[in-house]
Write a structure and sequence with these properties.
single chain; two-stranded antiparallel ribbon; 1 helix; 4 strands; disordered N terminus; SYT14/14L/16; Ovule protein; phospholipid binding
């Protein structure tokens, strides 16, 4: 059975590990500004040796991968503590 966990890292500078669990529902406890970019990479673990293969990615923030992600980022910044949930398509690696 495939191991499906979410790994979230806060970057670019700290590389701080935030979460590892089967569901994704993150809340930021810091100041997110318009000049920040969050990069989300999605990997699959395959084979006997559990090789990590990147299957896609998205970026949210200043360097968003699409206009939809940019709009979502602005909604989160303007949300002032409210949850802004939205599904996104992955960019193929």
């Amino acid at each position: 059975m495939e191991n499906k966990f979410t790994h979230i890292f806060l970057e670019p500078y700290s590389g701080q590990y935030i979460l590892k669990r089967r569901t994704f529902s993150e809340t930021s406890h810091g100041n997110l500004t318009e000049d920040v970019t969050i990069l989300v990479n999605v990997y699959a673990l395959v084979g006997v040796w559990r090789k990590k293969i990147q299957i896609g990615w998205i970026s949210l923030g200043e360097s968003s991968s699409t206009e939809d992600e940019q709009d979502h980022w602005h909604e989160m910044i303007q949300g002032l503590g409210t949850t802004v949930s939205k599904w996104h398509h992955l960019m193929i690696s």
